[in-house]
Structure formats: structure tokens, C-alpha cells
Amino acid sequence: MAEKIDINRIQRDMFIEYKGEPYRVVDYDHVKPGKGQAFVRVKAKNMNTGNAIEITYKSSDSIELADFEQVFAEFSYKDADEYHFLTQNTHEMISINAEDIKEEAKFLKEGMTVVVFIYKNKPIGIELPKAVELEVIETDPGFKGDTAAGGSKPAKLETGAVIQVPFFINEGDIVKVDTRTGQYLERLDRAQKK
Questions:
Q1: Where is the signal peptide?
Q2: Is residue 47 domain-shared with residue 78, that is, in the same domain?
Q3: Residue 193 in domain
């Protein structure tokens, strides 16, 4: 049976069960109105469907933690409709439906270590590292003077994702990208690339 905790102990990225479905807490807010009882507003993402919902709890409620297993695995390959990962401890192959991780797949490349979420013996999602280093394979060339005004341009990365980068970024550059927001963080020297 899953563990229950007081709603006031809720945290971001915590896994909870709501109406028999697994959710990941995206955000929460403790609200104390002038009149009436305090409550907690929780924004959560359904780990099966990817849909986000808002749930309101009384401050006296308790929530059920979802019974997730988290496994470190290395991305091996993708076929027509599944991504395949090799677990680090047991060296078992785990397959996940491409639809279940379509957002994360934008920044996924072979050999990358991720966390695979398993719920009731079924892999249902992954968590990427917070930032990844990827090569720019296609972008318009920068011109002198473009950097003075700031601004950005689209760039296609080696994984196929398209992000906005500063004008001084060129094809072949290695950039660090925040996987949660898809935002450019910095350009790396080739010597810095791991």
C-alpha cells in the first residue's frame, strides 16, 4: 500500500496518486484566505496521459504518494514507435512508447543516462538531465553587428529539436540547453564538451 503524507509536506516533482492515476507535482501553492479554511492548490501532470490538472486540497487533508520505481538507464536506440533503454544495474532492456515521451525525446541522444519511471511494472516516462550539450546542425549564419541588438534565431540541434539561439551561434557549435524549458543556456568550446 502506498504511503500517505500530510498535504502540507508536498513538494515539487513529488509523485502522488489521485483518483487511481499517477501524477507528478509541477507546482503548488499554500493559500490562506482572509476568511475560511486554508487550502493547498496543486498543479500536477498525469504520468500516463501527460495532461495537467489543478487539484485543491484542504490544509487538513493527506495525499497518497504514488508507488514509483526509478531506474537509471542509458538510451540505446529508437525504432518505429518505441525508445529502448538499457538499465545500468541489471542490464535489462526497457522499452517506452514514443508517444509517452515525445516532449523529452526532443533532447534525447544515444548514450544519454536518464531516469526511467516505472509504475505498476510499466515504464511510463523518463526524466532527462536538467541540461544537455548538443551540436547545432543547422542555422542561418551570423553577421557582424547582429549581436549589438541582441535577439535570436532558430537552430536545429543534432536530436532534431529546434530552439532559439543568439545570433553568434553557428553550425557545428556545441550548446547547452535546459531540458525543462528548451531554452539555450550557453555555448561551449569543443574542448569543454564531455
A1: none
A2: no
A3: no
pLDDT at 125: 87
Q: Quick check: helix, strand or coil at residue 178? A: strand
- Give SS3 for 87: strand
- Tell me the three cell numbers of residue 10: 508536498
Domain co-membership, 13 together with 58 = yes
The DSSP code for 66 is P
Query: Residue 69: beta bridge partners?
Result: 118
44 phi and psi angles, rounded to 5 deg: -140, 150
C-alpha distance from residue 77 to each of 83, 154, 174, 182 (Å): 6, 27, 22, 22
- Per the structure, the complete domain to which residue 154 belongs is given by 131-188
Per-residue pLDDT at 144: 57
pTM score of the predicted model: 0.76
What whole-number distance in Å separates Cα of residue 168 and Cα of residue 142?
Answer: 5
Q: What is the pLDDT of residues 82-132, one digit of tens each?
A: 999 999 989 999 999 888 888 899 999 999 999 999 988 889 889 999 999
CATH of the domain at 33: 2.30.30.30
- The amino acid that residue 98 corresponds to is A
E strands, 33-81, are 39-46, 52-58, 62-65, 68-78
Query: What Å distances lie between residue 138 and 23, 157, 161, 182, 189, CA to CA?
Result: 37, 7, 11, 17, 18
The domain that holds 172 is classified in CATH as 2.40.50.140
134 vs 169: CA distance, rounded Å: 12
